[in-house]
Amino acid sequence: MNNTLSESSATATKAIPLSIDDLTVAYHRKPVIWDVSLDLPAGSLVGVVGPNGAGKSTLLKAVMDLIPRASGRIKVFGESYADNRGRVGYVPQRESVDWDFPVDALDVVTMGLYREIGWCFPVRKKHRQAAMEALRRVGMADLANRQISQLSGGQQQRTFLARALVQDADLYLMDEPFAAVDASTERAIVDVLRDMRARGKTAVVIHHDLQTVAEYFDYVVLLNMRVVAHGSVKDVFTPENLQKTYGGRLTLLDEVTEAMRHQRRKL
Amino acid sequence: MMSRSVLIACGVLAWICFLAMLGFATELGLQQEGLQSEGQEAISNIEAPNVSLLKSRSSITDRRLEWPTWEQWWSLILLRDYNTRVVVLGVTLLGAAAGMVGSFTLLRKRALMGDALSHATLPGIGFAFLLANQLGWDAKSLPLLLFGATATGLIGLGVVLVIRHSTRLKEDTALGAVLSVFFGGGVALLSVIQQMDGHAAGLESFIYGKTASMGIRDVQLIAAAALVCILVSFLLFKELKLLCFDGQFASSRGFPAIRLDIVLMGLVVTVCIVGLQAVGLILVIALLIIPAAAARFWTEKMWVMFLISGCIGAAGGMVGAGMSAVFARLPSGAMIVLVCTVFFLLSMVFGTSRGILVRWLQRTQLNRSIDRQHLLRAAFELAEPKRVSRGTDNEIVPQDGHREQVTVSMQALLGKRSWSSWRLNRSIDRAARDSLLYRDGDGISLTARGVIEAARLTRQHRLWEIFLITHADFAPSQVDRQADAIEHVLEPELIRELVSLLDHQDIVVPASPHPVEEMKS
Amino acid sequence: MIFAISWNWSLDGWIVLAGILAAVSAALLGNFLVLRRMSMLGDAISHSVLPGLAAAFFISGTRNSFPMFIGAVFVGVLTAYLTQWIRGMGKVDEGASMGVVFTSLFALGLVLIVQGADRVDLDPGCVLYGAIEQTPLDQVQLGGVGVPRAVVTLGIVTAINTLFVLLFYKELKLSSFDPALSTSSGLSAGLMHYLLMTLVAITAVASFESVGNILVVAMLVVPPASAYMLTDRLPVMIGLSVALATLAAVLGHLGAMAVPAWFGFESTTTAGMMAVASGLIMLLALAFAPRHGIVVKWCNQRWLAISILCDDIVALLYRREERQLPCVVLENELCRELQAGTWSIYFSLVWLQQRGETTDANQQIALTEKGRDRARNLVRSHRLWENYLASQAMVDGNRLHGLAERFEHFTGRELREQLDKEMDAPSHDPHGSVIPVEKREEGTSL
To answer: Of B415, B432, B437, which is closest to residue B521 (Cα–Cα)?
Structure first.
């Protein structure tokens, strides 16, 4: 175990976990991201911070090929995302699924293993044990058999986190895991994140609470349609940069975007 | 309990499979003996007014509902009659397949997609018939008609998807438009066909469903298609479940969500098409919706829901087809649907997980426990001043069984909250039964157990109140109501957190942050 | 002759009138169903009136009776109510609860009808596709003139629906657009919902006998949907839907008589053909609606691509002139430089010449003065953007060109002036090229 661990962390340090080059996404009427280029350091906790509509979720979805991108190259550990899916774990926003669905917490976590289990093969005991272990790590072991709508918001979020954990990925993409969760869930998530870092994994976390950024993360990306700044929290998380991120938008860019959309629709 | 229901479901399924195999084994045997030639058989089946049993009884003039004799019932239940057996088993398999596939489409919120699809099959049936007639083929051949049905059904489905994706119209409008226009076209075609030598009568059975028009070959086709659907649903259960739950996650994990969607649509198409003859194109959608919706009331597990849904579908198919075989002139499609509806209603009322009865019971239980909590806390708080004056200082010592109790008058209790004396008395009776308190003249006294429980509740309530005042900036006069709303759902985990947050590590009941007497007003 | 139709006013006139009335009354209500995304509820209601009809038949023993009408309308409204109830009580998805309710009711009606077939002459086929051809046979005397009963009934229903839409126009609009606001401003969205459903049920029942319920469903959904493709304004949409419904009814009847004749048959169901006609109209609307049509949208995209290519061509020529390269180019050179297909280049060139912006002598392309103006503005936009992106948005130097290349096509004069102002009228772009000065049109002063 230790051996494989150090091995995987060795490869993780060799290749950049996530490298985005000239990424531009323009879709429907939603916010767009322009020209994002990033290289994220391995083994760090990366906070993505920016105002509403800054394209934070769009960035993650574009990385995972969930939405078409207008331009740009994305490398995950030096290869394309499709080749390295197994090394990426995704924690979507809580609103993205129907919580009335007839599955329990354990089922949801097991879904993280479906790819490893393979087509048409049933879920076996060892998979359920692995899922149970992941639930234990987020402090939900005794709620494993609850139907998911009967979990509190924070517990649902932890279930999603456990689903990502069970994949044993090297890069985790998390879409607002701290949104509207209780204090104990927040603590549980932070513990898990630190544990990940200790094992040499990388987590990219969309975050909205500026007060905790410095405490939780060691690397930060300030995003507002484009990357305003990125780097270690110490260097980058400064009042001026925040002012640039949250302060006035580039109105002319907005205008030309609007003009493009309008032309495309009307003409 | 879960595992038992799974077992039962498996048992029923096994029985169905056994009967199916039995049916086909005998059928094969018959074929080898050459008792019936297939061509004749198909024709005779189309002409026959019903499957078999009451062939002699049903005449044109006699149209009353005949109550079958015990013997006929018996022969139906044992599936003694060969034709009935084959038809009933075929429809049963179809029902099982539809129930299973339907549980996916229901959860994918595509329940009505099949409706547009099945309506869109009608023009295809008409075209296939006309074409076959022109080319001099057997225009009644089921595979041919179903091929036509599939073609226009898929076109209809495609139109729905195109409209939904590339125009401003919403899905419901696309469904409604495709459904009515294609069906209108089909009706127009059928009307033309009827002018041809009058041998188009068989086509009508596709609209309302008529098991009587099914030949052995047709049943074989239906059963085979149904079995394939069941098999695929079992094999891809895990993947389809993931697709229905969280399609985006599925594609982020590398599952081809679009292709899985196509597989699911393919299953729906297959079920709809082979169900046309037995259930009719208007009602075949019911087989996809009703069993799944009914199964949802029984469980919170997808796997169990899937099996129950299959069983309900199978039972609906079996009973419905059987009934229409025993009773004269009961359209099989409508019977199958009605049997499923009965299952649905039963499930909706008695379902163990989401049924109305269960939910009502849960609500009543919750209300009772809330009432009890209110009662205990009221008694505790009313007795509190006296207890304090005696110098016990709210100290709760569990092992202290013997304590001089304080009587609280009914009058005071009634004044404490806005509850009716009837409700209060019921609540007191129930609490007394659990020996949390006892009646004491015109009032009540808490027992030692009652005091401990009441103290715990009061402590929770007050901790929450203090939390609201100190951490959420509520005014002390408001917190009682707020805490009231939330105290019943406080989980131990949260209480622990509250305790650590508020630094009340001891088990002493904290003093109320607001004057308790005020609550009387 | 293709349209060998024997038109008989006293027969076909009434049939078409009945069809038009049924279509119009349904289309009026359908507008709001489509806007409220409840088209399928219309379908459900028109299916589930069957047991109401059958039960009322059994009780009253006659057709065309008032109790029967009431019974069917009641069941229709019940469908809407039960759908809501099951959805609420059983936490079932709306589509599914609708499916449960209407299939169950339809099945029940079917069984009732088949069982009572000896006492009542109502066959399920009639409910589905009606007997519009027989409308002229059943007449009532109205002011000395024999008018088909169906026409009278449908006329009344059409009048009621028209009145309803006219009187409650703004309430319907508000409750369809924003139910919460509607309820909070004292107009219960629920009440409007059930009022609308009651009228849908009444329309379905009134039409079932003459045109059958399939035409009701078609007319509830298809003409309003076509109208919705054609316009963005509610009053226009309602008017258009009525017009299209009428057109569909007329064409449907003509089609029913003419089309089968082409293949040597007599005629076919008018109701079915009306549905088909409305479908064809909708197909045209889907494809060719002025702004939202699929074909139109596709053409617009092609056109946008061509116009961007035209921009690129003139800009390329202009830059060559700037660097004093030979400004005359060959067509295939353009293809290579701009990485575009031969056809697109060809079309763009034809278009440019048409507008007098380039000349083409022996396949050698050069700018005219007009083209040069256009190109100057483009290049100016491009370089202004590069400046802006570099100084204001801190975009990396090596990406400036690509972004500016995208923006330049969408930058009008106003935006250019804003850019110019924001950066205090720069003279050079980050790469050192001169930003050309915009040529003022004659007569405009600074």
So the answer is: B415
